[in-house]
Amino acid sequence: MSLSFPPRQLYYNGKAQAATSGKSFQTINPATATPLADIQIASNADVDAAITSADRAFPAWAQTPLIARARILHKAAALLRERNDEIARVETLDSGKAFTETSTVDVTTGADVLEYYANFIGGGGLNGETTQLREDAWVYTKKSPLGVCAGIGAWNYPIQIALWKSAACLAAGNTMVYKPSEYTPLHGQTLAEIYTEAGLPDGVFNVINGAGDVGAYLTGHPLIAKVSFTGQVATGMKVAGAASGNMKYVTMELGGKSPLIVCPDAELESAVDGAMMANFYSTGQVCTNGTRVFVPRTMKAAFEKSLLEKIQYVRAGPLFDEQTNFGPLSSKVHYDKVVAYIRHGIESDRATLLCGGVEKPTVPKDLQAGFWVQPTVFTDCTDSMRIVKEEIFGPVMSILYYDTVEEAVRRANTTELGLAAGVFTKDLNLAHRVIDQLQAGITWVNTWGESPAEMAVGGWKKSGLGVENGRRGIEAWLQNKSTLVDMSGAVVSVFAKL
Predict the structure, then answer these.
(1) Which of 111, 133, 349, 395 has the fewest other C-beta atoms within 10 Å?
(2) What is the Rg, in whole angstroms, of the alpha carbon atoms belonging to the chain?
């Protein structure tokens, strides 16, 4: 079978490099279940070579003037925007997301983060602080990069997450070895080539390919100073434990089971729209999705009626059709997992199936082998149900009814996860009180899902460590040095003759 793309290689020392393992895997188009390209797998020696390339490049990059770094990042952002549709088409084929999404979100939001950090460092954002202690003594601080860092990407927002990690990392003066998810790897070499074209020195950004074993070897390497990981909770906990045990810095953006609370006074249509965006955008494959929707018992009939009316606007179909806004799941493995959860919700949890189910949606014949599911809504759910407690990472909404807002908040917090949360209400005083009580690192009021470059995002509890983006996001890629200068000309000593 002729593949859509040429083989993807590794990328280090400023150019594509053939893997020495002699092994490869195929990345699959989720819409059709057909292969797209052969992806070369890095051997341990290849990972060593990529890390050595990054280590060799680090001293000069760390000393590069901030304004020069900023110009390179700005150029890379401009190249991404120029090639937006071209890159988005590849993201659509690789991830299964509709082109209406990848062309308007994935590339552009990644470029936004590059521009944000280019502006930040170019405008003095990495300047330290100076404090006058007394007339003849003062303290100053300096921010320094960490060294060679590892970035482990996720499959749901491939190039966006690669940019979220690399933008702050490179702006801070570090170098990076990046491993894309084995389910959506096509963007890695493309991004590396864009960075090189923008003027990034050889070895500053490098790409290796492979599954979890390659990632484990990368993150455990003694030259790696920091690990930034996006993925599921269980894997993240293992990665964080291994990294912190070797005194590496870590940033972990993990999973969630986020609550969306609809207050009794909420505007019904807006709340339903928010719930749908929080469950069906990206086919539900978003870590911050608000999959536990808490609705006042008095609004039950109206909420369900409006939701059923709007479900028809979730349109599965050819991914490059401008009417399509709902794609397949990312892989066969993930499809089987999500369908198993839906079946469990029906057969074991005994939740009321409002719409959807285990059958595939109606799609054209050439797409029927793909990993398609229906947008699914369960109602009359209880907190003890497995579909309510565990992250499904698919288009599966659970509606839970409540009697008081205090009850809803208490139940919303009954989870080990704390990535995101939100509230819909016309009463802004109530909104702020509820948000303040919700145990989550990312929260929204009367909206859901937007994460601009200026907004630091990260989870509480088992949903993560540290934050990405915003002013705080770059701090995770720096180490601080404090210096006290005494100008008195004498050293005060307790060791003096009495």
Answers:
(1) 133
(2) 24
**pLDDT score recorded for residue 497:** 86
* Cα 272 from Cα 310, distance rounded (Å): 8
Q: How many residues does the chain have?
A: 498
Q: Is the pTM of this model over 0.85?
A: yes
| H or E element at residue 274 | helix 268-280
DSSP 305-343: HHHHHHHTT--BS-TTSTT--B---S-HHHHHHHHHHHH
In the chain, which segments carry CATH 3.40.309.10?
A: 259-445
> Which residues are within 8 A (CB) of 270 and not within 5 positions of it... i.e. 6 or more apart?
424, 446
pLDDT digits (tens, 9 = 90+) for 371-391: 999 999 999 999 999 999 999
Q: Could you give the count of Cα atoms lying within 13 Å of 218 in the half-sphere of its Cβ?
A: 34
Query: 418 in helix, strand or coil?
Result: strand
Q: Between 3.40.50.720, 3.30.1220.10, 3.10.450.710, 3.40.605.10, what CATH number should domain 10-254+463-482 receive? A: 3.40.605.10
Is 459:256 a contact under the CB 8 Å cutoff?
yes
Low-confidence ranges of the chain (pLDDT < 50): none
Residue limits of CATH 3.40.605.10 in the chain: 10-254+463-482
373 token code pair: 């599911």
CA atoms within 13 A on the CB side of 345: 32
Active site residue 450: no
Task: Please determine, looking at this structure, whether the domain spanning 259-445 carries the CATH number 3.40.309.10.
Answer: yes
Helices 300-311, 268-280: axis angle to 10 degrees equals: 50
Cα–Cα distances in Å, from 108 out to 97, 98, 151, 283?
Answer: 15, 15, 20, 20
Number of other residues whose CB lies within 10 A of the CB of residue 47: 23
Please tell me the predicted confidence (pLDDT) of residue 3: 86
Active-site annotation holder among 253, 304, 391, 468: 253
Q: Which two tokens stand for residue 402?
A: 């409540």
Please state, for a pLDDT cut of 90, what percent of the chain lies above it: 95
